[in-house]
Amino acid sequence: MLGGLNTRVMLEYLPEIWQGFLSTLWLSAAGFLGAMALGVLACALAIQPLRWLRAPAVAYVDVIRATPLLAQLYFLYFGLPRLGIVLPEMLIGIIALSLNSGAYMAEIIRSGILSIPRGQVEAGMSTGLGYMQRMRLIVLPQALRATVSPVIGQTIVLVKDSSLLSLISVVELTRAGQRIAIDRFMPVEGLVATALGYLVLYYALKSAAGAWSARNALPGRG
Amino acid sequence: MGKEARMIEFSGVNKWFGPLHVLNDISLTVGKGEVVVVCGPSGSGKSTLIRCVNGLEPFQQGRLVVDGTDLSNRRALRALRMEVGFVFQSFNLYPHKTALENVTLAPIHVRGLNRTEAEARGRALLEKVGLGDKMGNYPHQLSGGQQQRVAIARSLCMQPKVMLFDEPTSALDPEMINEVLDVMVGLAREGMTMMVVTHEMGFARKVADRVIFMDRGAIVETAPPETFFTAPLHARTRDFLGKILHH
Ligand SMILES: Nc1ncnc2c1ncn2[C@@H]1O[C@H](COP(=O)(O)OP(=O)(O)OP(=O)(O)O)[C@@H](O)[C@H]1O
Ligand SMILES: [Mg+2]
Hints:
Chain A: It is found in: Cell inner membrane; Cell membrane. The structure holds 2 protein chains of 2 kinds. Chain A is mainly alpha-helical. Helices cover about 80% and strands about 0% of the residues of chain A. The relative contact order of chain A is 0.15. Chain B is of the alpha/beta class. A 6-stranded mixed sheet of chain B has the order 6-7-8-3-9-10, with helices on both faces. A 4-stranded antiparallel sheet of chain B has the order 2-1-4-5, with helices on one face. Chains A and B meet through α6 and α7 of A and α2, β6, α3 and α5 of B. Bound molecules: adenosine-5'-triphosphate (ATP) and magnesium ion. Adenosine-5'-triphosphate binds near residues 22 and 45 of chain B.
């Protein structure tokens, strides 16, 4: 079947695919930044001792994890205008991606922090280090190290999830591929072109993860 | 004992973990320069007792004054912890820092020493505990005994007035126990005030001024080592000594 691919048509649509690829790239980058900001914030709130600050962070993570991204996306797309907030589709898409991945990022960062043995924190306390110093000098450097691989994993998910934005008519890689399907009735060509774009992004992230862990392994270990 | 000569003073301290009465009316005074060994069966509250001294455990009743600071004043806790070193059974070194960085972290960030001063102090201490050649090693590149000596140096680098030890040798292989005990004996002989939870009775005989026996959250018996080992008053102490000295 792949042997029968109409590569001429695929090449003809290369400019559209390329535009879609760039669009997916930067939607993902924006979503990633938003997700990290939200993730760090939600995690910081979730682990601090005040209950009334913890509750909203926990509720946010729960609601996002319990519902599908598609529902979240439509909720913003149809819900925000009813509140009188009219935003471009692209921005709604970025907000949805950020909110969605942010909840998973929060969980990833939180488990990184919880993976640091309590004894090290107590050792820090016992030498007079304050809460922020213990976080900055002892907990976070190790927790973030433990977090990089799962964060890259979640980013790979985010890149693929950005394809849902095609449903609110944001032009990105998936939608660009659909053009080939619709204009030329060649859905397979469209899908293959799209898949190649995602593969490139996937391998870029995967090799970033590999390079990072090779460089940051503790000396003499793993 | 005059007020100035007291370093640690428990008066009627009680602590509960839920329904469990884990410290039962503890009154105990440790003088400056005194070395007190605490022993007792597992679960008797030894760790809880010394963890109260630097505020790692809060308690519900009674008074505890350490180096003139009342522990009920949680705001004074950080300043107090600068003067009270704590050595854990499981070392608790920072795995992402070298031996020297482990030792200099708090002096730099808490005492405000500059790096050069802190490193000079840290090197001298690591030399002193016999690790002059291991300063650049990470914890996982050190044996248990070496890690525990780094942990001791880490506490000493803050130049504390009191050192607390919670079973510092019980996670170690037998051949490494002495290298750690030797460091502690040296410290005791230099006049450091020490509270040491341990079942190393050789150590107690050598340097302890008093040995305390705890059972079920209470101090059952306190005596100088000679008396403690040869003529314990209580049946429970005799029982316990029988168990730990004959195995
Ligand atoms: N955080 C906690 N919550 C509830 N119970 C606790 C907690 N920490 C300790 N305990 C209980 O308090 C009692 C005293 O514990 P502690 O660790 O002080 O004993 P220990 O004398 O140091 O024992 P070991 O020789 O085994 O170290 C034990 O019964 C223990 O199970
Ligand atoms: Mg204990």
